[in-house]
């Protein structure tokens, strides 16, 4: 009959008593101290700590403290009625193959979730986000923009109206046409730029209008921004970054002290989504332009102009670092789309 | 344990000559850490997988298993520590923390500043309270040889030490910072109990100022070097005739980047240095009755540990984290000693004075995982 040693602490003093534990009859634990005194306990009244690696186990005895023992394995035969979940967890924890396949499984599922799960969820949830949220979000951005670095446009009204007419003509018939509005702002610090807000406002800077060689090029940018709105990229990006944060929290939430290393990848990972959004908006723009009998070539030309402009007039480190090779790819795609229309 | 078999042990003490009665011999107890990377890796990876599969719910159980692993493998005088928290309670704290973080990040992303700012301020106002609840939580669920720890200091003192004094320190140009840290250590040190015994903390303010002043010196020097490099890089950028010349832009970046990296390295070194020193001060100033502690962490070791752990975790996409945690625990244990004066078997759960027993516990303990960096 097997017995093990342990130390009994009565919960009132730090003095431990070496004891011998045995279970002659199932459910009946016998504890014998070094003076030979034996106490018996019904195992139903005892609470046993769950198994965790090779760490010690404890037996809590009501009102009489607890017994610690390093003899791990026999506890599971003596006390079979344990939390099933933790028993299963322990079974996995102690197996090398289980641990390694768990590691592989984690990596794969995180990658799948990142590349497909999050974008898909964002796509499905985005249409259900209340328009009032889109509105407050966008109004807030506009307010901050107007307060900090944007002034009313200095473009001649005639020019503005001409562009508005062009804008109206390309958005005619789109499902969310009524939400779309084109705004002009004079914002030198932003350079030649355009962006779409979640409420359908599309903002163009004066610099961009001045940079363009013709209206056709500006219309191509409008089409691109309209694409962002039609695909709800603003809200989707918000949802996606929340998803990335959730993954990171789940992965690293348990490691204390490494939050610094965790936030950096978060920023990089979100950029991955915005690239695919740009591509989606580009494709939308090409189709819209072709539908209205315009050529995507204008988009390629506009993009080249913006690129050349950014490299020329700016000597800052940030612009230098942000000219990524993806731009070339986007120009090539636009030219490809332009060729197709000619055929 | 095996000593109990020795026939002599029991008979020796009574025959000792009756010398001076109250001169307890000091005895050093090294901390022994017995955790193993191979074993902990399995626990850690299963924690990660289940946390992901349950969308974070399991993370509370994961935390308990992790804490239990480190507590149980840390032994003083042959006896392991015990972590007794209930995962469900931890889950409650986590859910609150998740809600707060998600709300904050959504508000920040939507740039709803009129909501974000008051909300953020509100959270800041509760920080001392959360620290207080966190201290209570950790103490209440920590035990050694069946005796529990407790944290009994008040919430008002938490606000004094973790809000009012830091604000005062801020308005005096941070010159009071060592004093602020010292009072926080006093609050934490004096507030803890083990069984019926109270911890007490005493330290010399002058000692707290020394590493602070050294850090300030190093920081100022690093900042001056950084400024010189930045001005030099702007000078290089300005030398080009029309400001658009490419080679000069390149040169500017190559001066500016090392300057920025240098500043970050300097800040890293300073923060680890001061953290290490203060951690030593805390433990070395702490008493448990007649017993005391010794912490001898070294800055250069800590620097190397943090740096190499960080690199390993990054390069392994996080998989080296369990190795890093075990490594850190090993180092900390190797540099932590419990020095007992008198018999450590005589510690008891009985209170030394009546006022220690917390009568009604109005506010429960809560774990929000707030690191206070001791």
Strand numbers in spatial order across the main sheet of chain A:
4-3-2-1-7-6-5
Q: Give the tally of β-strands of chain B.
A: 10
Task: Provide a count of the helices of chain B.
Answer: 10
Number of domains of chain A: 2
SSE run of chain A: EEEEEEEHHHHEHEEEHHHHHHH
Beta-strand percent range of chain A: 15-25%
Subunit arrangement of the protein: heterodimer
Mean pLDDT over the full residue set of chain A: 79
Overall strand count of chain A: 11
The biggest beta sheet of chain B reads: 10 strands, antiparallel, barrel
Give the N-terminus to C-terminus distance of chain A in angstroms.
Answer: 90 Å
Q: What gap, in angstroms, lies between the N and C termini of chain B?
A: 35 Å
Q: Report the helical percentage of chain A.
A: 55-70%
Describe the protein in words.
Chain A contains twelve helices and eleven strands. Chain A is an alpha+beta fold. Chain B has ten helices and ten strands.
Describe this structure in a few short sentences.
The complex is a heterodimer of chains A (343) and B (374). Chain A has 343 residues and is an alpha+beta fold. Chain A is built from 12 helices and 11 strands.
Characteristic key phrases:
A: 343 residues, alpha+beta, PH-domain like, elongated, B: 374 residues, 10 strands, globular, disordered N terminus
